[in-house]
Specification:
The chain contains 13 helices and 8 strands. It has 294 residues and is an alpha/beta fold. It has a single domain (7-226), classed as Alpha-Beta Barrel (TIM Barrel), CATH 3.20.20.70. Strands 7-6-5-4-3-2-1-8 form an 8-stranded parallel β-sheet. α2 (25-37) links the parallel β1 and β2. α5 (116-129) packs parallel to α7 (149-155), α7 (149-155) packs parallel to α8 and α10 (215-225) runs antiparallel to α11 (229-245). The protein is globular and about 50 Å long.
Amino acid sequence: MIQEQIKGVGVALVTPFDKNHEIDFVSFKKLLEHTAAIGVDYWVVQGTTGESPTTTLEEKNKLLAFCKENNPKNLPIVYGIGGNNTAQILEIIKQTDFSGVTAVLSASPYYNKPSQAGIIAHYEKIADASPVPIILYNVPGRTASNLTAQTTLHLAQHPNIVAIKEASGNLLQCMEIAKHKPKDFLLISGDDMLTVPMISFGAEGVISVMANAFEAFNEMSHLALEGKFREASQKMFSLLSLNELMYVEGNPVGIKQALALMGVCSEEVRLPLLKASDALKHKIQYQLSIISEQ
């Protein structure tokens, strides 16, 4: 089943850039090798952490193809196709080579603030058109609209919608989904530091920012999935201060700075984002030193 391939830790891959803000494929290969080595279970290409709003369709296709060609562990690949123009998404689906793609991660429409009925119609159109299963992505902090539990449960009945990445931060809403969802529909954490509590009541993994860099995060998630919540919580507590720094100047600014300090890729991001300030860099560097001593 497709669902078995998207359990565990999925990493929302960053897109490395060089000083000219062109894609750095040498560093991208290093990132793929790094994430595979530290224990992720699958890759998510061109989620929002991959700066998908500022990459072209041609660049997205190149990044996807590169992942397929540089995948010695044969990790499942989830591809990000989302937006607030339903017709445009359907056209992108027509133009995409889905060979080697396990599923599509599709963020809920942003800015338009559609009704729940509009969100349902949007996703049903995408699910009907996609040759691979759809993972819903609820991130109201970015989209300004929330997929309610009722909307998610309605969409979970569609045969080509298999999971939701839930990043609302609303644990009661997540519990409602976990309680009533079909058995084969997956609840996936979309908030790194809520992964352990969400797994405790039924989530079956996470799509993560921190998994780009930190083996301890992957260990935390896998311990929770094994039911070892005391050990998982200790790992979680060790990452709390660092996690906060990942987002204070926008995502993926923090995680790219951490990766730069680790020698994986540069800290460069595309406008309107700016690379980490010196103050943030020094705070991340300090937290990395604490983790390395543990």
